[in-house]
Design goal:
Elements lengths: L30 H4 L3 E6 L6 H17 L5 E5 L4 H13 L2 E6 L7 H10 L3 E5 L10 E5 L1 H18 L5 E6 L5 H14 L6 E6 L5 H14 L4 E6 L2 H13 L14 H9 L5 E3 L2 H16 L8 E3 L2 E6 L2 E3 L4 H5 L8 H4 L5 H6 L4
Parallel strand pairs: 1-2, 1-3, 3-4, 4-5, 5-11, 6-7, 6-8
Antiparallel strand pairs: 9-12, 10-11
Helix pairs in contact: 2-10, 3-4, 5-6, 7-8
């Protein structure tokens, strides 16, 4: 795993230096020329804002820096695995030489890998792994470490505050292998914590609405017994928080993951306990670098193998009120205090020394 600086925030750091692809006059075919071609960048859903706001633009920008001739075909499947299959087929029909895919359904994506590789098209799994059919490469943050980090952070806080009661666990989508890894990481911290796991839920499609509905039922069943909620991402965590507020019950510490703007604001206000800062620039650029190497016929360097796939995994950073100012507002950050500290959150920002 590669350590990241604590000042990183999801998808908002500046991109790296320009790498030219031009051929020198009089020279033979260059490595850069060999890298020309189309690349597909297939994202899974619109439930999370990150894919449209960060992943796709950052990947496209890095590819343009590496090779001006490497056109990017971007598609979002909006949570539809069948549509993602169609998008992959369409990209291959358009001549894509490499497909970067964050799968809607990790099991179903095995068919995409099989079809692509049979046609000589390389596949890079992005963010979510594809366990049943090894891709050519996998780029992601360490999802199991994410789950362990957010859960252990919550457990430590509950012990420090001498909280009483049990924990709810809201996992991600059951069709997402990354969610399974996060779930495994959460259990590694919760199961040995001494806090009772009251109930857990696998959230279809990572839907905040479904997470809220489930949490509402648990609040009614375990009223007065819920010490904390381990939610696998900011969307499901936000759904849980909404459920407590709708029930007019004090919101216990709730975790998250992705460092979305709304989650950062909830941490500022005290509604959400933690999140994970995953600088999407890191994985988006790493994926582009891997694609460029594959197009040039090179073998990308892997840190380890996961699901029999050469993988490059990055270590995330837990964000709480204690380190939010340091992590969120670095000198290279695009997200400003103006973005976070709107009128509703201005007083809380001042209390945290954020101006």
């Amino acid at each position: 795993m590669r350590k990241l600086a604590s000042g990183a925030l999801t998808g908002i750091l500046a991109v790296g230096a320009l790498t030219a692809c031009a051929q020198e006059p009089g020279a033979g075919p260059s490595k850069a020329d060999e890298a020309s071609g189309k690349v597909a960048f297939l994202m899974p859903d619109l439930a999370s804002t990150r894919y449209e706001q960060y992943d796709a633009p950052l990947f496209k920008k890095r590819m343009a820096e590496l090779c001006a001739d490497c056109g990017v075909i971007y598609q979002n499947a909006n949570g539809d695995a069948s549509l993602q299959q169609q998008q992959a087929n369409s990209a291959m029909a358009q001549g894509a030489k490499v497909i970067v895919i964050n799968p809607v359904d990790s099991a179903a994506a095995a068919t995409i890998v099989q079809t692509a590789q049979s046609q000589g098209v390389k596949v890079v799994a992005y963010d979510r792994p594809i366990p049943n059919k090894p891709a050519d490469f996998y780029v992601s943050f360490d999802n199991e470490a994410i789950g362990a980090s957010i859960a252990q952070s919550l457990v430590d806080h509950l012990k420090e505050t001498k909280a009483k009661g049990g924990v709810l666990q809201i996992n991600g989508s059951p069709t997402d292998a990354a969610a399974g890894l996060i779930k495994k990481g959460i259990h590694s911290a919760v199961d040995s914590s001494g806090f009772e796991l009251l109930a857990e839920y696998d959230t279809p499609g990572w839907s905040p609405e479904r997470a809220q509905q489930w949490a509402s039922g648990q609040i009614a069943q375990y009223r007065g017994r819920i010490a904390g909620v381990v939610a696998a991402n900011d969307g499901t965590g936000g759904g849980a928080i909404a459920a407590f507020k709708a029930a007019d019950v004090n919101v216990p510490p709730v975790t998250g993951n992705d460092a979305e703007l709304a989650a950062i604001q909830r941490i500022v206000s005290g509604d959400q306990y933690n999140t994970i800062s995953k600088p999407i620039r890191i994985v988006a650029e790493a994926a582009a670098d891997v694609v460029h190497q594959l197009l040039r016929g090179e073998e990308p360097k892997a840190d380890k193998k996961l699901f029999n796939t050469p993988s490059q995994l990055f270590e995330p950073t837990v964000v709480t009120r204690k380190n939010l100012k340091e992590v969120v507002f670095g000198p290279d950050a695009v997200l400003s205090t103006k973005d976070v500290c709107t009128t509703q959150y201005a007083a809380d920002c001042r209390r945290l020394g954020i101006r």
